[in-house]
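Appendix B, record 7
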Amino acid sequence: MKILVCTDNSKHSMKALKMAARLAECCKDKVETIDIVHVYHVDLPVSDFHSTVTYIEQYEFLHKFKKEEGEKILEAAAQVFTGVDAEVNTILKEGHPAATIIKMAATGNYDLIIMGSRGLGGLKKALLGSVSNAVLQEVQTSVLIVK
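Structure tokens (predicted):
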């Protein structure tokens, strides 16, 4: 079995990581690969015409920051799988989170996607976050949403 676990460092994604680790422990002979993905998106503020920092410099700064932050998130996520008898890979991608995860699901030959019900953004009262909802609606792969 090949599993994709999505993380954004939110409390719900941490629960998803722990659920994936428990599943891998329960199904030791069945779970072969666990891919942990973090997708970051660089949103630039509206440019200030009087700013001495160019748009490209802002993008490069934010890109570097988000990439380094993503690497730390994945490093911490991988620690959840210490002692799990499966191949664990971390994947860092830049792009729109839902679209990137949907593309990975279409091309990655996953048996299961595990993700939190809500991430860092959006309304707290929403039943399902926009990324998890989009993934659930679009992929052909089974999805486990963790609350």
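Remarks on this record: Residues 75 and 90 are 8 Å apart (CA to CA). The chain has one domain: 2-146.
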